[in-house]
Amino acid sequence: MPAKPLEQMSLKELWELFPISLEDYNEEWPRVAVEEIYALRSLLGDNIVSIYHIGSTAIKGIKAKPIIDILIESNGPEAFARIKGAMLGADYICMAESASRLSFNKGYTLNGYADKVFHIHVAAAGHIDEVTFRDYLRSHPAAARKYESLKLSLLPKFRNNRDGYTRAKTNFVKAVMRIASAKTDDCTPGELLARLTEKLQGRIGKKEVDDIAAEATVTDRVKQTLWALTKSPGRRVAVNALWVITHLPKYEIDWLASLQDELIEWLIDETDASKKRMLLQLLREQQFNADNENVVKLLDFCLPKINAESEPYAVRCFSLYVAYKICLPYPELISELSYRIELLKTQTLSPGLRSALRQISSRVLLK
Prior knowledge:
Elements: H1 11-17, H2 29-44, E1 50-54, E2 68-74, H3 76-89, E3 93-97, E4 101-109, E5 112-124, H4 129-139, H5 141-158, H6 162-168, H7 170-182, H8 189-200, H9 206-218, H10 220-229, H11 235-245, H12 253-258, H13 260-269, H14 273-284, H15 293-307, H16 313-327, H17 331-344, H18 351-366
Parallel strand pairs: 2-5
Antiparallel strand pairs: 1-2, 3-4, 4-5
Helix pairs in contact: 4-5, 4-7, 5-6, 7-9, 8-10, 9-10, 9-11, 10-11, 11-14, 13-14, 13-15, 14-16, 15-16, 15-17, 16-17, 16-18, 17-18
């Protein structure tokens, strides 16, 4: 029985047939895009207002899916209808259609990708956010590299889930658009400090935290200013800034690792329970060298906290995780941790601490 046409396949079937892959930047991509743009201009004529090469293949130096994205600006529903008819007649596949957008693919076959693959996006004139995004990353190589790191971090989880992959990039893309439209790169350090302080001094929710964290991943200026605000004399600003930093993506771990000694020293002296919890949360993601004197101090801090019933459950929970990570390579330290675990089993625990105990206990038993 012949395979189903692509148009009749479910998303799951399409994603399995066409997994996401990221390749090194190819100097041929702009040339291939120009050739396709000429062909589209010839095919669509006056239905095109403007046409652009967009997406990561249009940003020099970063890894990208080997798929050429092209955006066409066009005027009105009548032009959309003419474009759709012409594109279908030229063997493009219409993958999505709405009042303001059309999406076409070419280069997808029942045997997988062809040598050249294209996504053609048709939008009403003026709806060219993709061009703004492209231009910002072209003129800000550091932000482009951050975008590359984000994509690489998402690939293992979303290789066969394009919608999930796209959603997971949304906060970063929105942050770039906010920065580009507000021209916040042009503000002085004092203006940036004042803007973030104003955002952080009130009550903020998960959405606001994610938005600011995304902005910090786009530009290091925001990230460094957030770090400075963690030492703010105003508790709410300091706690909120630290909260945002705990929401930075895992590819920022190298930056946090460079702050490890400072984080440890801060944690040992800190009395605020919320700050202690978040500092431990940041340290939990790091690697440790037990020859480092500060790491020894961190272990001495965490071990008694595991069983300290006067401490909040979250502090005890993260102390257990951090202590395990430090002790893991050293049998003599694992035996000390085992003693703490056995003692913990006799205490009243929260669900989170009980879950951490089960996880760590089973790992320790395997040692």
